[in-house]
Write a structure and sequence with these properties.
The protein is an alpha+beta fold. It has 3 helices and 9 strands. Residues about 1-10 have low confidence and may be disordered.
């Protein structure tokens, strides 16, 4: 049985399937969301830039945004934490097929998670990092609320049964 913990989140999800917790950064590809965003940008760009230039820029925006959303749906990362064995594994996937598997640690320890501040374009984001003999950057979190959501989930839901 698969339990989706934060189903309304747009850029990362927690799943629990049996004794395995999965953190995925796969962005769902929703056609209705894509149509609403592109049609509103079409109208705004045509109104703001005029008919000729507006249509040209709107078409470029449509192509670019569609390719971005498609790429983020095709290529994504999953982090799996097994409660029974204590393993933490990072999977790079392309269209639901595992492209690369990396064992991050044999024994999961929630105290090894770090949330590194990252400031870009005046916005503060956080990098979810798992510290072993090297830094394992797992996910970029958009804001402090997402950081706190992940901290709470890891501390309350993941219980290693060694």
């Amino acid at each position: 049985m698969q339990i989706v913990v934060n189903e309304h989140e747009n850029y990362f999800r927690f799943f629990k399937n049996g004794n395995i917790h999965t953190l995925s950064d796969r962005i769902p590809f929703k056609w209705n969301e894509l149509m609403i965003w592109t049609s509103s940008s079409f109208i705004f760009l045509i109104w703001f830039l005029g008919i000729g230039v507006g249509i040209f820029v709107a078409i470029l925006t449509l192509i670019g945004y569609t390719l971005y959303r498609l790429a983020s749906w095709i290529y994504y990362t999953e982090v799996k934490i097994n409660e029974k064995t204590g393993n933490i594994i990072q999977l790079k996937k392309i269209l639901n097929r595992t492209h690369k598997t990396e064992l991050i640690a044999h024994k999961f320890d929630s105290k090894r998670f770090e949330y590194l501040k990252l400031t870009r374009s005046g916005k503060t984001k956080f990098v979810l990092n798992y510290q072993t003999h090297k830094n394992n950057e797992l996910l970029i979190l958009k804001n402090k609320a997402d950081k706190e959501l992940i901290e709470k989930y890891i501390s309350e839901q993941i219980k290693i049964q060694l």
